[in-house]
Amino acid sequence: MEYIEFEKIFKEECEKNKICSIINIDKFYNYMKFLLDWNEKINLTAIKEENEFIVKHFVDSLIINNLVKDKDKIIDVGTGAGFPGIPLKLFNVEQKITLIDSVGKKIKVLNDVIEKLDLKYIEAIHIRAEDLARDNKYRECFDIAVSRAVANMSTLVEYLIPFVKVGGLIICMKGPKIDEELESSRSAINLLGGRVDYIENFNISGEFERNVIVIKKVKNTPNKYPRGQGKALKEPL
């Protein structure tokens, strides 16, 4: 796909999904090309068709931009190939973003992308969420923690909530049919210092459903959380 075609489709899909004031379209294009090139060496994404990439990676990431303020400090947990963190960064260059993932090869790719796109105020770290959240430099210092389809809600909130300062937001990007999963996670959310604020439902380009669960951090997370040694995954709260 040439840049002119990409720009046209990207703008149309953003408009269709009420995403306005798109900037840095050239960097979105280069980002897509970098990832698809890397994807031939490392398994980063199952989505290889460019039209689908625009909708299912870029537009999907940007639907939460209305929840993010200009200079919010954001952590993207389990970022994978950089979603939603890098699209959010390209949309608003002032945001300070930390990307983390437990797979070192993916972080290597992201650091390459960050360098080639000349992005500032962004870092990519190879580490497990439960380990970084015990570092005082990162614990309860972010305005927003976000994750896209990484784990079950009960596990996910143990990864995310400890990173956020009181008054901040935790944004969980999930697929359809979340009622039972959300209900089973409410006690964990409360225990970790959160409160479900609201849920937004999106039908993205008429192709797939995205539910965004927004949790408000209302009190400090007890020091013993998150638990280490994979307990959040093996033994959800």
What would a concise description of this structure say?
The protein has 237 residues and is α/β, with parallel strands linked by helices.
Characterization of the model:
With 237 residues, this protein is an alpha/beta fold. Helices cover 38% and strands 23% of the residues. It is built from nine helices and seven strands; from the N terminus they run αααβαβαβαβαβαββα. Strands 3-2-1-4-5-7-6 form a seven-stranded mixed sheet, with helices on both faces. The mean pLDDT is 94.
- DSSP strand tally: 7
Shape: globular
Rg, nearest Å = 17 Å
Q: State the order of secondary-structure elements, H for helix, E for strand.
A: HHHEHEHEHEHEHEEH
> How do the strands line up in the largest sheet?
3-2-1-4-5-7-6
Report the end-to-end length measured between terminal Cα atoms.
46 Å
| Biggest β-sheet strands, sense, barrel | 7 strands, mixed
DSSP summary: helix tally? 9
Secondary structure: helix percent: 25-40%
Strand percentage? 15-25%
Uncertain runs: none
**Structure classification:** alpha/beta
Mean pLDDT: 94
